[in-house]
UniProtKB/TrEMBL annotation:
PROSITE patterns reported in the protein's UniProt record: RADICAL_SAM
Protein's recorded name: ELP3: radical SAM enzyme/protein acetyltransferase, ELP3 family
Gene Ontology CC entries for this record: cytoplasm
A single GO molecular function term of this UniProt record: transferase activity
GO terms classed as biological process: tRNA wobble base 5-methoxycarbonylmethyl-2-thiouridinylation
Species, as recorded: Sporomusa termitida
Length: 352
């Protein structure tokens, strides 16, 4: 059954801090928060539009939901709670801050039928969190995740590589600490400079340099591989493209790309390709036949065929032939060279 999310944006509702990178009005394209009446109408309209049965979730994004007064949380949740009790939707998810999770809050969410809580974490390095004016530290993340994991709620963490003060070492620390927390899933949104944010001020004064697109691709690919190897789903990489974000003047700088997730997957395929060639197997440089699943075609080739052209050039390979075959599993490559077949998938990449 197809999965569908009814997104409800509550830009900056409940936020006690202005995190330096954040401008939810620009990210969500919605200037004002919704009312409970609007939530009810949105859910009813979307449900009425479905022609087939679907697995539906209502999701509250863009603010600090559990920082709102309890009465207001309950008012906004009520239409979703009712729809879930009536069997029209199967889940309710919301995003919030790690320091706005405690036992009474969690109990209230459970009573209202909430199923998933996403925590905006961004980094697990206290220096980076302080520079981003997050207003919480790593300890509050650990406490919130520990509490959520004792319940039936699923817990997701959102990370933002490339914030001021973060280097590779800091990112490695973040990933190792996140793996230890073992969330149910993560999202990765590399930091971009959005107009109207304090980060834009830093950038314009020359005090902050965002990651380039290739740097953000490599860091996000590392994170994605590290999480997936531990069985932690990575459900989103890169900001969702929108008319608002694509409007000139919204994103001032940084690694925003409408198909960022695809770039990251293509880089992971490049690591597989290069990893195989570097084993120096006989015949590899004369002719390399690479079979892949048909749906991985663009990821194997890379943006503008960069993966294949780059591989050929870097390793001096005379001929590369690509062949799509439905029998090859997704995210797997079947190499043939020197009369032998070799299989490689992304879990076999030795170094990232
Ligand atoms: S990152 Fe989250 S807590 Fe910070 S301002 Fe944006 S919505 Fe509010």
């Amino acid at each position: 059954m197809k999965h569908y999310i009814i997104p409800i944006f509550i830009p900056h509702l409940g936020c006690r801090h202005q995190c330096i990178f954040c401008n939810q009005q620009s990210i969500t394209g919605r200037p004002t928060p919704v009312t409970a009446r609007q939530v009810r109408t949105m859910i009813a309209d979307r449900l009425a539009a479905f022609k087939q049965k679907r697995q539906v979730e209502v999701a509250f994004y863009g603010g600090s939901f559990t920082a709102l007064p309890e009465a207001m949380q309950n008012e906004l949740l009520a239409p979703a709670t009712e729809a879930r009790l009536q069997g029209h939707i199967q889940g309710i998810r919301l995003s919030t801050r790690p320091d706005c999770i405690n036992e009474p809050i969690v109990n209230n969410l459970l009573e209202r039928g909430v199923t998933v809580v996403e925590l905006g974490v961004q980094s697990l390095d206290d220096t980076v969190l302080a520079a981003a004016a997050r207003g919480h530290d790593c300890k509050s993340v650990a406490q919130a995740v520990t509490l959520l994991k004792k319940t039936s709620l699923r817990c997701g963490l959102q990370f933002m590589p490339g914030l001021p003060g973060e280097d590779w070492l800091s990112l490695l620390k973040t990933v190792q600490r996140a793996l230890a927390l073992s969330p149910d899933f993560v999202r990765i949104y590399p930091a971009v400079v959005i107009q109207g944010t304090p980060l834009a001020g830093l950038y314009q004064r020359g005090a902050y340099q965002p990651l380039s697109l290739p740097q953000a691709t490599v860091r996000s690919a590392y994170m994605k591989l590290a999480f997936e190897r531990r069985g932690i789903a990575v459900i989103r990489v890169g900001l969702q493209a929108s008319a608002e974000l694509d409007r000139e003047g919204t994103v001032l700088a940084g690694p925003y790309h409408p198909a960022f997730g695809e770039l990251v997957d293509a880089h992971i395929f490049y690591l597989m390709l290069a990893g195989f060639v570097e084993q120096g197997i006989a015949g590899c440089q004369e002719h390399l036949l690479i079979r892949h699943h048909p749906q991985d075609c663009s990821k194997v080739r890379g943006h503008y065929n960069n993966n294949i052209a780059g591989l050929q050039q870097a390793y001096n390979i005379a001929k590369i032939t690509l062949q799509a075959e439905a029998l090859v599993p997704r995210a797997t490559l079947l190499f043939t060279c020197g009369g032998q077949d070799y299989l490689l998938n992304k879990n076999m990449i030795n170094s990232i």
